[in-house]
Amino acid sequence: MNGVHDMGGMQGFGPVQPEANEPVFHAPWEGRVLALRRAAGAWRKWNIDFGRHTIETLPPADYLRMSYYEKWFASTIKLIVGAGLVTKEEVETGRPAAGSKRETPPLTPDKVMPILKAGGPTLRETNAKPRFADGAPVRARDINPAGHTRLPRYVRGRMGTIECHHGAHVFPDTNSKFEGEKPQYLYTVRFEARELWGEGANPRDTVHLDLWEEYLDPA
Amino acid sequence: MSHDHDDHGHDHDHGASDMALRVKALETLLIEKGLVDPAALDAIVEAYETQIGPRNGARVVARAWTDPDYKARLMSDATAAIAEMGFSGAQGEHMVVVENTPDTHNLVVCTLCSCYPWPVLGLPPVWYKSSAFRSRAVIDPRGVLRDFGLALPDEVAVRVWDSTAEIRYLVLPERPSGTENMNAEQLAGLVTRDSMVGTARVTA
């Protein structure tokens, strides 16, 4: 999706403003949003790619205005309502619907550290051979899917070089639609800054992206 | 409800207290429905406030500086080498370490969202998630570094790593001169979060 989230190469957002001695959370509610999202995720009603797409499909003006945890909060409501864990009315009133069943939370305190330590690896076994060898020239495909993709606009149609592959990984474009993991080789592709940004770029500089096989053509 | 955090800007203050109320209302609803366990929520917050943060990454870097065998393992299989130190999991399932040298400076970004190596660096700072950083790091990395007070000579190549998949990147900064007599623990104290994202150098 050619959304506002695909920011690489945009201009006009001003300088980066680091904050000295930044706290982990700027207010307690931010930590609660992080925790609510993870705890609700333990119901396994969605995957990380669908979760990301839920943030990308926030209205563009909201996306730019909201803080990170505001976006997470808004998207968490979309996720839990969409998954049928709660109803819109329950979110609006803040109360469980009359007669609704009381569930048992899948994420108990003892499981928190084991789950955080395990994470969700995306590497999958494959019998396929990688299509591209290290050092091979490739061109990123010029595609414009309306759904979730991890091929940023700023490299589409541009030439790069395969640095290495990382084995076969879950493909976000299909996984985000619950159409299967479709694991395929994931490559680190090196692009010269001049190929992406023109002659003004430093000839020594490069930008490296991790791109799935389906995003690439031989060049 | 009271809120004792320190925000700048009145509009922001207003928005923040509104968010506190809305988040509390949602949390209460999910607890009442039995969808989440409040003690599990506490445990998640506590983990990221006290256990999962940039001191983990600093220990990895300091060990790489002092233990050549460890550094070799770190550069060839970062996920396993970092797990040796006890750090693994969510948003660090597949790790790669990129090394700064006198000729090459590495900078990590996620232009599409805010992917960041949580097990070694904790949760990302606000600037890492900002539109300014995400947009400019790939097109004007040297300008971004200047925003951090780091002016790189033209002769030093800049490698930007855009975290578009589930590979997470940790920068191995250069060990500063004058630290030859320091042990790993002392060195870890010098290693900043920003130096492991690539927006700073480590100084003694």
Written account of the structure:
- The complex is a heterodimer of chains A (219) and B (204).
- Chain A has 219 residues and is α+β, with helices and mostly antiparallel strands.
- Chain A folds into 2 domains: 1-9 and 25-96, Orthogonal Bundle (Cyclin A, domain 1), CATH 1.10.472; 123-218, Roll (SH3 type barrels).
- Chain A is 32% helix and 16% strand.
- Chain A contains 8 helices and 6 strands.
- Chain A has helices spanning 28-41, 48-56, 60-65, 68-82, 88-93, 109-118, 172-175, 193-197, and strands spanning 123-124, 137-140, 159-169, 184-192, 206-212, 216-218.
- In chain A, strands 1, 2, 3, 4, 5 and 6 form a 6-stranded antiparallel β-sheet that branches.
- The longest helix of chain A is centred in the middle third of the chain and has 15 residues, at 68-82.
- Chain A starts with 27 loop residues before the first helix and ends with a strand.
- Chain B has 204 residues and is mainly alpha-helical.
- Chain B has one domain: Nitrile Hydratase, Chain A (Alpha-Beta Complex).
- Chain B contains 11 helices and 4 strands.
- Chain B has a two-stranded parallel ribbon. A two-stranded parallel sheet of chain B has the order 2-3.
- In chain B, helix 3 packs across helix 4 and helix 4 packs across helix 5 (78-84).
- Chains A and B meet through helix 1, helix 2, helix 4, helix 6 and helix 8 of A and helix 1, helix 2, helix 7, helix 8 and helix 9 of B.
Q: What's the helix count of chain A?
A: 8
* Chain-averaged pLDDT of chain A: 98
- SS-based structural class of chain B? mainly alpha
Low-confidence stretches of chain A: none
Order of helices and strands of chain B: HHHHHEEHHHHEEHH
Using the coordinates above, name the CATH class of the largest domain in chain A. Answer: Mainly Beta
Quick one: overall form of chain A?
Answer: globular
Given as residue ranges, the uncertain stretches of chain B (5+ residues, pLDDT < 50) are 1-12
